[in-house]
Amino acid sequence: MKFSITGVNHKSAPVEVRERLAFDDHSLSEALADLKRRPGFREGLILSTCNRVEIALTSEDHGAATVSVDEFLADMRHVQREWVTPYLYHYEDDEAIRHLFRVAASLDSMVVGEPQILGQLKSAYSLAKEHGAVSGFLDVLLTRAFNVAKRVRSETDIGESAVSVSYAAVELARDIFGTLRDKKVMIVGAGKMSELAARHLKRSGTQQIYVTNRTYERAVEMAQLFDGQIVEYTRFVSFLPEVDIVIASSGAPHYIIVRDDMKKVLEARRNKPMFLIDIAVPRNIEPSVNELDNVFLYDIDDLQKVVETNLKGRMTSAEEAEAIIREEVERMVARLKVREVTPTIVGLQEQLEKIRLAELARMRGKFGTLTPEQEQALEAFSKGMMNKIAHAPISELRRQASEPDGHHFIAAVRKVFRIGE
Asked: pLDDT by residue (tens digit) across 186-242?
């Protein structure tokens, strides 16, 4: 039995290729059913995200498994096999296990340490289990991958720091206010950056989000995503005294919040602190606003510096995580090799037990009737003898299971003791 992972990701293929190869929920079920019918298939899983499409396989024949993945992707995504093959990477056995653990721990992600990939991998596992595509070896391996990811999260700081501008903005707000649950937030503009910031705010517990945008329809769409309330664009400045945090990301070519406006806002708030995040280019908030007491203003360059600092921190954490991965891969490989040699050990014990029982039966004919005490002594003697004979080869089988050429010794033992014949 062999284990492999074949696929494409953000490093091996451009987005237009990943889009062509990606599976949605409906096509994923069909693909799993098709994968199970492929020659050599034993177990399989399909992981499909915006940044990767990977097929993990256990199979009887290594060569057939590699070819079937090429053909499988070409058939299922209606592309030429020659078109898809150059973008594919392929890992086998120990390297495949290492890759799986790195993916689960978010070390192979576009943003190292992002938490989404683990949830996506768990969903892929659940779907494969539901379709009967995962059992035995792959089940054990994926369960271990989830535990490795948990260990990386708990023993390193890889997921602690913000590494996107929108997330950094929210983290800074949390540093200033402690909790965001009772804070009111105004989002000015309804672009992608604003949407991402609003998502982070919602996950941080923010309950009251207000949205304003020059185009009213887009403001409505944005507000619906987060159960937000709409504020008319023409009156959002007069509404600012009601909010604690402002995220500005509109496409206006000039300042839409100026120093004089903010002085009035602070007077109305009785100098309660305000946090202003300007992630627009060109900037939406006049920089001199930051000179006012109780105002904390950050623009996109400030946030980018925070992100860069955090990324360096994540890289340090990633090195720690890689050490954990190496340790876990070695442990897993050793465990799997012992597992592979177990049938040989069991076969050896069974063969020796057959010999012992046959010899006991032959000797009983010579001894005649034995007392219960004699029977018990003979049974103990014969078992003790066989255990001593078996001890050395069984210990060596377990040791050789972890050696590169150990399969030669295992094959010799099977041949000498006629295991499996």
From this structure: 999 987 777 888 888 888 888 899 999 999 998 998 888 888 999 999 999 999 999
Domain range holding 10?
Answer: 2-155
Q: Report CA-CA distances (Å) from 402 to 97, 139, 158, 223, 396.
A: 16, 22, 32, 58, 10
21 token code pair:
């190869």
50 part of the active site: yes
Residue 315 falls inside a structural domain: no
Task: Say how far apart CA 32 and CA 23 lie, in whole Å.
Answer: 11
Per-residue pLDDT reduced to its tens digit, 223-232: 888 889 999 9
With vertex at residue 298, the alpha carbon angle to CA 113 and CA 114, rounded to the nearest 5 degrees, is: 10
CATH number of the domain to which 21 belongs: 3.30.460.30
277 and 348 inside one domain: no
Alpha helices in 105-189 (DSSP H): 116-130, 137-155, 165-177
Rg (CA), the chain: 32
Q: Give how far Cα 86 sits from Cα of 46, 63, 81, 216, 397, Å.
A: 19, 17, 9, 47, 41
Query: Which residues lie across from 188 on neighbouring strands?
Result: 212, 248
146 neighbors 62 (Cβ within 8 angstroms): no
pTM exceeding 0.85: no
Name the token pair of 36: 């199970």
Can you give the pLDDT at residue 96? 96
Same domain, 80 and 187: no
Q: How many CB atoms lie within 10 A of CB 415?
A: 11
- Four-residue CA torsion sign, 157, 160, 162, 168: negative
Please name which of 228, 232, 245, 227 lies closest in space to residue 176, comparing C-alpha atoms: 245
User: Is 314 a domain residue?
Assistant: no
Q: Are 97 and 332 within 8 A, CB to CB?
A: yes
Burial of 256 (0-12, 13-18, 19+ CB in 10 A): buried
* Domain termination site, one of 126, 155, 184: 155
Burial per residue of 225-243, b for 16 or more beta-carbon CB atoms within 10 angstroms, e otherwise = ebebeebebeebbeebeeb
Q: Which of 1, 15, 33, 50 is catalytic?
A: 50
* pLDDT exceeds cutoff 80 at 406: no
Separation CA 222–CA 151 (nearest Å): 37
Cα–Cα distance, 171 to 178 (Å, whole number) = 10
User: What does DSSP say about strands 41-48 and 52-59: parallel, antiparallel, or unpaired?
Assistant: antiparallel
Based on the fold, state whether residues 136 and 273 are members of the same structural domain. no
**Cβ atoms of 210 and 187 closer than 8 Å:** yes
